[in-house]
């Protein structure tokens, strides 16, 4: 009996040991967020079976607490969340199964399926709007046994027609072996979402990777305990990652702890790109670099191209450089940029606008210095102590800093462009500059010769040269200006009517003009007058501005196919005739020929003159008092370039009270000769010569006949 009891106890104990501890269980219940859960399974897990809440966003948790016991949520039952007007459903890692129609009839358009999900039933988004399904892990098993209810639904439909199909997003690591396929998977469109990972080598810690939807931009991570210069897409940290471009594949980004706004190119030049606008400034040169330096138009760093627009302060100072090429995009040369080198010449590109103070201080220029017109400002001492013998400044320069050309012992003369407005102190200090020629008006800011630091220096015998047109109103005065002796430089201009222009010559007082010697075959010498009566003598220095005229063996022929005459009496019917203005003009007429304006019946010359060199004229007159009642004419006559005489006639009838009762304008018949000389001393002119009178009578007869024919 006892033995039997012992045996029974041992068997019971064995069964208990084999079965293990009992799992906690619970009956169905509704959680605080409105999710309804069914009774727990024998393994202690629980299933979400419904939703009674009012929120439109729902998170199905990984576990749910009931009676102080945590139950893993591993399944969602059929129709559990169907038709709840949910705009968002978040599924937690740990979920294993989603039954048919479980999430259908809602408003959400996208959802993420956790990597833990292994089984998906039929049409889980039944009658919903989901068009984007993102899988965090391997492809689950799908219930596709009924084609009417595809596992992930039909996407967005209208009246049964698919408007937007479902797109499946997955990670590249789960392609092929993970069950997904590129392009399509179980009849769904597929897209591989890139993963951006972050490598913090040598600095410890970690940063969560970023899963991006195709086309989405990665977000630069923020570190609170250290600073990353930039992120690179290669372990060598040479290729900067561009966060403005969406990755298309998985990428690991490596933290570069040094500043990414400065880098050193292969030729030893270090550039700064901190401006952030795609430009770079050359800031230094390694000591081991070549003495021959080239600053390029652009420079590349980590797959990014920058435009080199500036040379930084002292960037190349004291480097024993013998030759330098400046890129064509450089606009600024910083202070002391090339100070104390071995340069014997320099070519400044036309892109440069500003030359900083001491930029080229202490070099050994053997060649003339030409500063382009793009340069607006030359800083203090910019070219001091450089051994300069010649400096050319161009129009466009506005500012010359103090001591800019100081201590250039061989520089004796210079010309200042008209654009210069400011000249600071002693720009020629220690230089024997004795001739400063100004091309325009006096600068608005300048220090006089008796100032402690005069603008133009103190060289013995220094003279300021200016042009006569800039005397007084242009700011210059004679015999001195600002304490400097002044000289007016004559200008010799060349009039080459109808031929290639010749530049004027500005001469220093006492200097001879140079014969430009035109090569035209018909050139016949230079003259001081337009009528070619006095030849210009190039062996005598001009003392004033002078224009010399080129004589051509064959005169230019001026032709006009359309001579015109304009006559206007300034009258209308009813106006008083006496004192009315007469305005005439003409064009396309024979140069040097005469024109006349005659009032008839008793001839009175109202106006007359000679056609100018352009073949044109304008004139005016006044109709006299005492014009008798009756019919009269005013005739304007001129000669066309072909020699024919042309006229324009005004017909008017004057009343007994001296007002106009009729007025018209008609082109008169062309005459072939004009021989009458008409008096112009009043309306009752002196008698004409017999021949002239005959012509006038004949003219009157013609007019009368014309009127009869018109009538």
UniProtKB/TrEMBL annotation:
Residues 1-24 form the signal peptide. InterPro entries: InlB-like_B-rpt, Listeria/Bacterioides_rpt_sf, LRR_5, LRR_dom_sf, Surface_bspA-like. It comes from the Bacteria. Gene3D superfamilies: Listeria-Bacteroides repeat domain, Ribonuclease Inhibitor. Its main location: other. The chain crosses the membrane at residues 685-705. It is found in: Cell envelope. One of its GO terms (cellular component) is cell envelope. Keywords: Membrane, Signal, Transmembrane, Transmembrane helix. This is Listeria/Bacterioides repeat-containing protein.
